[in-house]
């Protein structure tokens, strides 16, 4: 039985082209890019080529790029590093964070409370979105940083980042950070169009290799206070020998993904729509989480609640049939705490343990999608 992997929001399998780029860099650019000999120079050139290539793929000409090890690190460098840089600009330095943020961003901000920062939550609507009106009500002269994700990792809602950035700039001097980890490589918009001060991205969500991520810093953004020091790497902002091979794979994965989007920008939405139709035929009572408007939802994520059906047994029934899906954020999958996202959107408590997340690659066939519906039919019959 062929495995149908539908958990790309957790981690996407490495693309063949990305693996080839990784292997090529491992052979030809294996040395430390800080070394002064020829092998080191070759590694440094490879790293800079990947830096330029990733910026081009994501349309980030107004940004510099800092390599990090993970998306979590990128979020921490942006949120904690920029907040600390701006702390002295306010007597009561305040950070605003969206109510549905990934824990890597939310907890990075909350940890700063021990350093005297005030952290306030921007409420989201029933679809998990931060609206400009909600942000405007929270802005004040004390706000030094706003952090709002582009695409929600659990229910797929797309925040209007460009509008939120404009509102922030018009009504405060705060910097704006975006966790774009679930969006880049799956959106045709350029990062330049968002115009945020800092943008976090990660390779493994789009078919790169784990262990490589990045923080894009706008040319007008002050430098964050480093999390790691010791070697002067990345302009002194991130000490540690750079992952040359991972950067090459990330660059190639981004290039492949963006090329696919420019050929068919609806590649994800088409499959999401088809999958939803298949599921609704079997379970017309299912509840779709996230926005109804296609323009407000990430097409690679379809999250639904099946009333009266617990998610975990259903997940195992899918897996027994060769279909791997998620039940929310993989970062929380082994915990027992309730999802803050589901609480933030006010989902009925009797539905919160019935949520399944299908996250797509964009290459699924109609046959693949019909397999999901067939398993759901069998699962419904066994519980009826």
List the helices and strands and how they pair.
Layout: E1 4-5, H1 16-28, H2 38-58, E2 63-68, H3 71-86, E3 94-98, H4 103-110, E4 118-122, H5 132-138, E5 143-147, H6 161-171, E6 175-179, H7 191-194, E7 198-202, E8 213-218, H8 244-263, H9 267-282, E9 287-289, E10 301-305, H10 311-320, E11 323-324, H11 340-344, E12 355-359, H12 366-383
Summarize the model shown.
The protein has 384 residues and is α/β, with parallel strands linked by helices.
What would the keywords be for this entry?
about 375 residues; Aspartate Aminotransferase, domain 2; alpha/beta; three-stranded antiparallel β-sheet; globular; seven-stranded mixed β-sheet
What does it look like?
The protein contains twelve helices and twelve strands. By secondary structure, it is of the alpha/beta class. It has two domains: 128 residues, Aspartate Aminotransferase, domain 1 (Alpha-Beta Complex); 245 residues, Type I PLP-dependent aspartate aminotransferase-like (Major domain) (Aspartate Aminotransferase, domain 2, 3-Layer(aba) Sandwich). The chain has a seven-stranded mixed β-sheet with strand order 2-8-7-6-5-3-4, sandwiched between helices. The radius of gyration is 21 Å and the shape is globular. It starts with a strand and ends with a helix. 50% of the residues are buried. The model has no long low-confidence stretch (mean pLDDT 95).
């Amino acid at each position: 039985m062929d495995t149908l992997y539908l958990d790309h929001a957790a981690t996407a399998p490495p693309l063949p082209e990305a693996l080839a780029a990784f292997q090529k860099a491992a052979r030809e650019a294996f040395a430390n890019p800080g070394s002064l000999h020829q092998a080191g120079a070759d590694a440094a050139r490879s790293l800079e080529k990947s830096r330029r290539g990733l910026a081009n793929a994501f349309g980030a000409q107004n940004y510099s790029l800092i390599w990090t090890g993970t998306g979590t690190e990128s979020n921490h460098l942006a949120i904690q590093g920029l907040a600390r840089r701006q702390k002295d600009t306010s007597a009561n330095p305040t950070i605003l964070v969206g109510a549905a943020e990934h824990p890597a961003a939310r907890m990075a901000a909350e940890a700063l409370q021990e350093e005297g920062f005030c952290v306030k939550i921007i409420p989201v609507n029933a679809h998990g979105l931060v609206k400009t009106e909600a942000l405007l009500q929270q802005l004040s002269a004390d706000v030094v940083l706003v952090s709002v994700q582009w695409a929600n990792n659990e229910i797929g809602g797309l925040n209007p980042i460009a509008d939120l950035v404009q509102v922030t700039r018009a009504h405060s001097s705060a910097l704006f950070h975006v966790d774009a980890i679930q969006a880049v490589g799956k959106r045709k918009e350029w990062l330049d169009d968002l115009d945020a001060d800092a943008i976090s991205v990660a390779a493994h969500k789009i078919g790169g290799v784990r262990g490589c991520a990045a923080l894009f810093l706008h040319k007008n953004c002050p430098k964050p206070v480093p999390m790691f020091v010791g070697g002067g790497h990345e302009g002194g902002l991130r000490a540690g020998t750079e992952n040359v091979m991972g950067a090459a794979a990330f660059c190639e994965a981004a290039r492949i993904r963006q090329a696919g989007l420019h050929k068919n920008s609806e590649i994800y939405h088409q499959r999401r729509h088809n999958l939803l139709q298949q599921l609704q035929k079997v379970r017309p009572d299912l509840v779709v989480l996230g926005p109804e408007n296609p323009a407000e939802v990430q097409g690679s994520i379809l999250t639904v609640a099946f009333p009266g059906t617990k998610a975990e047994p259903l997940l195992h029934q899918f897996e027994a049939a060769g279909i791997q899906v998620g039940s929310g954020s993989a970062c929380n999958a082994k915990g027992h705490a309730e999802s803050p996202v589901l609480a933030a959107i006010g989902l009925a408590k009797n539905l919160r343990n019935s949520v399944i997340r299908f996250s797509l690659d964009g290459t699924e066939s109609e046959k693949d999608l019909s397999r999901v519906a067939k398993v759901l039919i069998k699962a419904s019959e066994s519980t009826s």
